[in-house]
UniProtKB/TrEMBL annotation:
Protein source organism: Reyranella aquatilis
Pfam families linked: adh_short
Annotated coiled-coil segments of the chain: none
Similarity comment text for this entry: Belongs to the short-chain dehydrogenases/reductases (SDR) family.
Protein name stated in the entry: SDR family NAD(P)-dependent oxidoreductase
Positions of the Ketoreductase domain: 7-187
PANTHER family, A to Z: 3-OXOACYL-(ACYL-CARRIER-PROTEIN) REDUCTASE, 3-OXOACYL-[ACYL-CARRIER-PROTEIN] REDUCTASE FABG
Length: 243
């Protein structure tokens, strides 16, 4: 695992689910953590309180990460309170479940903005500092839907496939600057999205159960800790990809 003592990490969409688990795991490895949220202030504050209770350093920072001005303001706030950002985890996401005949242009655009454009905006904001310091770690939270049909819709598929392309594109261009860019692609993790109707049971997963947010966080720490891995997507599917 990564030793992140003295490092600053930003996790987008970190008030619950996978983002929350990632934020807590980064703090346990020694990082000061900025917990981004859009609406769930109380949940974000709870994550920050848990980190501080354990002796770590953290802050909650509100921002719609699909908005460029909001991202600039968020980064400035984190740098004022915690310092320059060394680790970025692009986790914020939107999953609008709808049939292909009911999918609207607004829903498509909003999904691309929140799931894909946000990763571009946040990456663009932190990269200059990482390249100057010759060290940085960027992890994008993708999905098995980037390569499979998934259960949400083609808008979601497109956003996550785009995120993996973004991962490879940045990785190839910043590797010589000491910055690695990787993706972690979970499938059917026991989060609110799955419990809310995406999958009623884990019967079709060979392992026989849903994944956990903590297992996703383990994969994030793994790629952060491996300085030789870049441009890769780590799949977490409980064997679902075998089918």
């Amino acid at each position: 695992m990564a030793c992140l003592s003295g490092k600053v990490a930003l996790v987008t969409g970190a008030s619950r689910g996978i983002g929350r688990a990632v934020a807590l795991s980064l703090a346990r490895e020694g990082a000061a953590v900025a917990v981004n949220y859009r609406e769930r202030a109380a949940d974000a504050d709870e994550v920050v309180a848990a980190i501080r209770t354990a002796g770590g350093k953290a802050m909650a920072v509100a921002a719609d990460v699909s908005d460029s001005a909001a991202v600039v303001n968020m980064i400035a706030a984190v740098e004022r309170e915690l310092g320059l950002i060394d680790v970025l985890v692009n986790n914020a996401g939107l999953a609008i479940m709808t049939g292909i005949d009911d999918l609207t242009e607004e829903e498509f655009d909003r999904t691309i903005a929140v799931n894909l454009k946000s990763a571009f905006l946040c990456t663009r904001a932190v990269l200059p500092g990482m390249r100057t310091r010759k060290w940085g770690r960027i992890v994008n939270i993708s999905s098995g839907a980037a390569r499979g049909a998934g259960g949400i819709g083609p808008h979601y598929n497109a956003s996550k496939a785009g995120m993996e392309g973004l991962t490879r594109g940045y990785a190839a261009r910043v590797v010589k600057d000491g910055v690695t860019v990787n993706a972690v692609a979970p499938s059917l993790i026991e989060t609110d999205m799955v419990r809310g109707g995406l999958a009623s049971s884990p019967d079709r997963i060979p392992l026989g159960r849903f994944g956990t947010s903590e297992e996703c966080a383990q994969a994030v720490l793994m790629v952060i800790g491996n300085a030789y891995m870049t441009g890769q997507t780590v799949a977490l599917s409980g064997g679902l990809s075998f089918l």
